[in-house]
Amino acid sequence: MLALPLAGVFALTGCFSSSEEEQNSAESADTDARVSLAMLQPPRSGLSPLSDDAFKLSRWSTAETLISLDADATAQPGLATEWTQDGTDPSLWRFTIREDVTFHDGTELTAEVAMNALQAAIDASPQPRILDGVELDLSVEGNDLLVRTAEEDPLVPQRLSSPQLSILAEAAYEGGQVVDPVGHGTGPFELISVDGTSAATLDRYEDYWGEPALASGIDVDFVPDGTARAAALRTGEADVVEAIPVGQAGQIDEDLIYEVPMPRTNTLYLNNEEGPFEDPEVRAAAREAIDRAALIEGVYEGRADIAEGLLGPALPWAQDFRGSQSYQDTLEGRAEPAQVDGVEISLGTFTDRAELPEVAVLLEQQLEEAGFVVTQDVREYQYIEADAVDGQFDAFILSRATVLDSGDPAAYMYSDFACEGSFNLSQFCDDDVDAALQNASEQYPAEGREEAIMAAEAEILAQDAAIPLLHERVIQGESSRTSGAEQDPRERLLITAETMLGQED
C-alpha cells in the first residue's frame, strides 16, 4: 500500500490558505455535487456535542469552537478572534468573540450566547472529558467572554478547542440535558436531519462567516461493518470513507487510500479495583504474557507500531523522555509477575474497529499460554461502553485517542487514570499518579509540560494500570474525484469547506 505523507498544516475552518493550484482546483469543482461519506461509528448520544458525538459534528464542519488548533496543537482563532491571560491574575482569561457570525437558525453569535453554550457543558452530567478536574466561572464584558478558573490553568485555550465545547445556538439547549445540534451550528455545512443511527444530511450554509463550502452538501451513512465501508469505496458509492480495515486495503486501488499515523493507542485496560487484576503481580503476569509484535504482524499486517508507552510516534517528543534516568527508575518499581494457573478473566472489546476482535483472539491465546482462562465478550461499541466504564470486565481492549480533546495528552491521562477521571476503565486510583497528573496539568506548553506528562506516563505504567499494545495508523479512503478532504491524526477534521468533487468531463 502506498503511504502518502501528511499535510504539513491542517486547514483551519474559515482561515484557509490558497495557492494557484488550489484556486484552479476550486474553479473545476462541481459546486452542485454532494460528498458521500461512510463513517465508522453511528451516533451514541443523539449527536449531542456534550458527548463523543461532538467529533462527528466537527468532522462534518457543522459545529465550531472558540479556538482551533494547528498541527503543533498551538491555539489559533476560531469563533474567538483573540484571547489574553490577565497579567496580574493568571486564573482569568479574556476571549474576544468574532463578530458577524450567524447560527444556522439565523440567530447571531454573541459573547452571552457563547457563555450559555459553555455553561451547558459545565452543568452537564456527566461533563465533557475536557472539563475533568477543572472549574470554570464564566461572565461577559461587552463582546468579551471572561473565563476564570479555580486554579491557574495553562491549557484554557486548548480546552476550549475541544469539539465537546462547540458553540451552538441558544435553541439547541432548550431541551436541558438533551442538546439538539440540528440547524444550530455555525460551520460551512448545516446539519439538516439525522436518521437515527443510520444516516445524516448536511447542506451548504450560504451565510457562513468564512469562505463558503465548495460542495453543496454531505450525505453521511454510518457503516460499522468494515468490509461494507471498503466496498463502498471500491464501487464508488462513497467519496470518503473512514477507517478501512487493514485486511481490506489490499483489495483497493492504492491511489484511493491514505495511511495516517495516529495519536491512538490500542490499550488493554485492567480492572485494578476488583477481580484477579486487583493483585499487581497478576497484572504484571498479563503484561509479560503479551507479544506485541505478533499482534502487529498477525492482525495489522505490519501497519502499526509497537507501543513502548501510552504515547506513540505521532508525538515524537514522547520517546525522547523514555530514556531518562528518572523515567527508568520509576519503571523499576513495577511488580514482579505472579505464576498464574487457571486464573479466570473476562475480556471485552468491540466490533466497530474491525481489527479489535482479531486482537482479542490473539490476546486470548497469549494470555491462556501464560495460565489465564479467558472468556470474551465482543459487541458493538454503543452496546458495551457503559459496561466497560462501570468496570464489568477484568480486561478491556480499547482503541484510544491520546490527544483527542485538547491536543494535549494530559487531559486523556487524567480522564483515564486519575481517581476522579470520567473514563477510568481500569477503575484505577493511585496518589502518586494523581500527584504526577496534577503537576503535568500545572505546566505551560513548551515550559516543562512534556517532561511532566512523561513522568505521569511512567507512574501509570509502573502500576500496570493498563498495558499499551500498539500505536495505530488509520487507512482513509477517498475516491478519485475527491480532493480537499483532511487526513487528520486528531480525528477532528474530515469534510471541510475546501472539500470538493471534480466536475465530470
Description:
The longest helix has 15 residues, at 355-369. With 505 residues, this protein is α+β, with helices and mostly antiparallel strands. A hairpin with a 2-residue loop joins β6 (136-141) and β7. The model is unreliable at 1-19 (pLDDT under 50). The chain starts with 19 loop residues before the first helix and ends with a strand. α10 (325-331) runs parallel beside α15 and α14 (431-442) packs antiparallel against α15. The radius of gyration is 23 Å and the shape is globular. The protein contains 15 helices and 19 strands. It has two domains: 20-239 and 479-501, Periplasmic binding protein-like II (D-Maltodextrin-Binding Protein, domain 2, 3-Layer(aba) Sandwich), CATH 3.40.190; 263-473, Dipeptide-binding Protein, Domain 3 (Dipeptide-binding Protein, domain 3), CATH 3.10.105.10. It has helices spanning 20-27, 54-59, 111-123, 156-159, 226-234, 246-249, 280-289, 292-299, 317-322, 325-331, 355-369, 381-389, 409-417, 431-442, 449-462; strands at residues 34-39, 67-69, 75-77, 80-85, 92-97, 136-141, 144-149, 189-195, 199-204, 217-222, 240-241, 257-270, 304-306, 343-350, 372-379, 395-401, 466-478, 482-483, 500-501. Helices cover 27% and strands 23% of the residues. Strands 1, 8, 9, 10, 11, 12, 13, 14, 15, 16 and 17 form an eleven-stranded mixed β-sheet that branches. GO terms for molecular function: peptide transmembrane transporter activity. This is Peptide/nickel transport system substrate-binding protein. It holds the Pfam family SBP_bac_5. Residues 75-422 form the Solute-binding protein family domain.
